[in-house]
Please model this.
Amino acid sequence: MASTKSLTYAPSKTPKAAAIAGILFALLLIAGFALLRLSVPADPREPGSWLKGNSDAVALALNLVPFAGIAFLWFIGVLRDRLGDAEDRFFATVFFGSGLLYLGMLFSAAALIGGLIIAAAAQPKELIDSATFHFARAAAYSTVNI
Model:
């Protein structure tokens, strides 16, 4: 008698993968926020000298954000896979939607700070006097000081 192979995949190690993804997300986000906190001054009225001196640290922090986002999405996916059919549809919708909203806000804040750095490198004199700079500086300050 010939042996039959199962057409389904082998059960994955989701608890371990969820733990690794969650820890990786936390470490990347903590490292990024720590770099931003050390680079961006605590005073939202600071005229922008941090854009010249600390732009490399801020750029590194902003480059960590997509990797943290990928780890967070992996964490959400593995948890949802682990719950499987036992997961409530309302809970699943709220969990997934709030996770995507959080990542969207995180990416938007990172893009705003990145745009501020690029604009400061291109035309530093004109940027400092603009209303856009004051808005982006306040947003960067509030992002870092959560």
